[in-house]
Amino acid sequence: MSLPSGVFQQSYAQDMAIFRTRTHWLLLLVFLVLLFTMPIFSSNRMLTVATIMGISVISVLGLQILTGYCGQISIGHAGFMAVGGYVSAILTAKLGWSFWAALPCAGLSAGVVGIIFGLPSLKIKGFYLIMATVAAHFIIIWVVLQFYDVTGGADGLAVPRPELGGLVLKSKASYFYLVMIIACISVYLAKNIVRTRAGRAFVAIRDNDLAAEVMGVNLWIYKLTAFFIGCVFAGVAGALLVHYFAFISTDNFPFMNSVWYLGMLIVGGMGSIAGAILGTVSLKLLDELVTVFGPTLAAVFPAIAAQAAASLGLIMRGMVIIIFLIFEPRGLVHRWEIIKSYYRRWPFSY
Q1: Does residue 284 fall inside a structural domain?
Q2: 317: domain CATH number?
Q3: Average pLDDT, whole number, for the chain?
């Protein structure tokens, strides 16, 4: 990563640091202060949007590790979220476990299921792997619907709210803090995972798996490791989602969510932790803008049917993804790097 003029690294620890300058630390501090004071000046609707956004960031981080770094394309991520959500719901609602004990179990269970459905990646890739992960989603949903006595089937299952020291986290603000703390920890873990030996192996497999194998990278181990890690993030996100709504059913995990998660990676940028965050925030904010201005647009242009206005969100998301695929295939994070380089080298940015 390029640094501002006059900034030099004097040790390997400094070179490997995530935040390298005082400006970086200051910006991080300002961001955290603004983030955790958001409930003070935000409405319940804004807190709801931010909470769902934080849960989506956790899930997309897992997909970024699996697809963006390791190159194993998955369109079954919502199914793995369902595994984590149902495991946490059953442990807390049926067996009386606390949320804090059920949450890691939800992540690990989703990771194990991810390993099972990741086994085909050892023999297939590309379009065939995509279809295998699509099948994984529908198999998971089918299993949930069949075990009605345990999962509640199509009727769903009531889920208790998390408790902390006898305090039930049922307000928008309290759950916002819970999700944002876990999201920040997830970003930190994901950033460090991709900088490890396993992360470098993931990139080697993504770029050229045959060359990686010749260089000694064990494809069998690292592909399954990528599936496990990616699905652990998805399982944690699924558990947070169902406890937020205090209810779980298969409707919480539609198949199209998996497609939109992949679209978030395209918009934000493949192979970048920052890209996963930027893509998720961008598309979620786009949804909110369409929700706010959609009825206004229908009122101004009566010729537009109400159904068209209601579908505007899907249309806009699809258009944005297509535009990025054509004009900015490396995503927002690439554009941000260009802006930073221009700023650091000004007035000699040429």
Answers
A1: yes
A2: 1.10.3470
A3: 88
Domain that holds residue 290: 44-345
Letter for the amino acid at 15? D
SS3 167: strand
pLDDT of 94 over the 80 cut: yes
User: For helices 127-146 and 77-93, what crossing angle results, to 10°?
Assistant: 20
- Secondary structure (3-state) at 247: strand
Q: Please determine, for residue 164, whether its predicted confidence score (pLDDT) is greater than 80.
A: yes
Beta strand ranges found along the chain (DSSP E): 157-158, 163-164, 167-168, 247-248
Contact by Cβ (8 Å): 144, 82: yes
For 306, phi then psi, to 5°, come to -60, -35
CA dist 181 and 176 (Å) reads 9
| Dist CA 130 CA 135 (whole Å) | 9
Please answer whether residues 111 and 235 qualify as being in contact, where contact means their C-beta atoms are separated by less than 8 angstroms. Answer: yes
306 pLDDT more than 60: no
DSSP letter, residue 262:
H
- In terms of Cα–Cα distance, which of 73, 71, 114 is closest to 201? 71
Task: Assess whether pLDDT exceeds 60 at residue 77.
Answer: yes
Q: Which two tokens stand for residue 216?
A: 């000694």
Share of the chain above pLDDT 90, in %: 59
Specify if 15 maps to a domain. no
- For residues 126 and 80, the model is more confident at 80
- Provide the pairing of β-strand 163-164 with 247-248: unpaired
Q: Is 248 helix (H, G, I), strand (E, B) or coil?
A: strand
pTM: 0.91
Please indicate, yes or no, if residue 13 is contained in any of the structural domains. Answer: no
For the chain, the domain total comes to 1
Q: Which residues contact 76 (CB under 8 A, 6 or more apart)?
A: 117, 133, 134, 135, 136, 137, 140, 258
DSSP-assigned letter for residue 5: T
Residue 35 placed within a domain = no
Chain centroid to CA 88: 19
Question: Token match 């819970």: residue?
Answer: 178
